[in-house]
Fold:
Amino acid sequence: MPGLGTVLGMVASRPELAAHPDRLRWNARYLDDFTATFLPHALAEHALALPLPPGPVLDLASGPSGSALLAAAAGRRCVAVDASDVALRLLAREADGRGLAGLIGLVHADLGSWRPEPASYALVLCTGFWDRALFAAAAAAVLPGGLLGWEALTAQARRARPSVPASWCLAPGEPASLLPDGFSVLQEYQQAAAGSKRRLLVRRQLSASVFTAVFCCPLGGVGCTELEG
Structure:
């Protein structure tokens, strides 16, 4: 169901997620002598440096996200969604300390069922989680002219870490092979080493006709770019 989750301030969690295995696993990690770096993911840095339509950023399975902070620092509203309320608290505190709390919305949700609203985000990011149904919903959530960036483990990761469930890993050709019509691949990259991840950055196409689209620049100004295709 689109939007099902708890939007957090400083910070309440959803009671129905109290025993969720993802919440328990990630909360334990973030509570166990963990120091967040809040460094943005390289995919986020790349995407936010490209032309984007007006609109917010969605960071799925965000953790204590440096990518959300980067988007907010550029003047973008950002929604960070995660099963770990501990991770979201870390992010909330950091955003508050940087004066960015008003630009970052926090959603405590199970990404196995939570879905974003269609055609609502200039950029959708996910850099540490894989779910085919969520990927389809994420692609649908991208605004025309917007970007979808994804990184996840491939099956090769299970050679080094056999305990990793196969369902957490991309099959050959994924996620690009699962894209609906109307997306253009800008970057596809796979690590060569064991424990490999695959990265994808795509743009949702605009109308087939030539028209003027207005994009927000990183500092909040407005410029016009002629786009074709």
